[in-house]
Write a structure and sequence with these properties.
0% strand, single chain, mainly alpha
Length: 115
């Protein structure tokens, strides 16, 4: 129905969220946008946005999906009622969770087979 819609917030759209909050948020977005999508902080940022947007309950037939990930993420970040510091704490929590997960998985299981 919406062939260009994503189900989970894609890394390539991180930069679109830069000017939605204060300076600390902007610096975080700038930094993470330059990292590879497999970097721990990129994964944590995506996890943060996925949680804020409730992406796991999105489906291609929903109104939110018809808006697209960028619009949905912008609305979620702007609509976050707490302070930027609280938002950055949520990012740090997501970063710790990603780091713990990555540390718990053997490195050879994280690598993709090219065959």
């Amino acid at each position: 129905m919406y062939p260009k819609s994503e189900i989970l917030f894609p890394h390539r759209n991180i930069c679109t969220l830069k000017n939605l909050r204060g300076r600390k948020w902007q610096k975080l977005v700038e930094r993470v946008a330059t990292l590879p999508e497999t970097h721990e902080e990129s994964l944590a940022f995506s996890l943060l946005i996925i949680r804020l947007c409730n992406c796991l309950n999105c489906n291609l037939g929903s109104y939110k999906a018809s808006l697209g990930c960028v619009t949905c993420a912008k609305r979620a970040v702007i609509g976050f009622k707490e302070s930027d510091e609280a938002l950055l704490k949520l990012f740090e929590q997501a970063r710790r969770e990603v780091a713990e997960f990555l540390a718990s998985v053997p490195e050879d299981e994280l690598l993709c087979e090219s065959d």
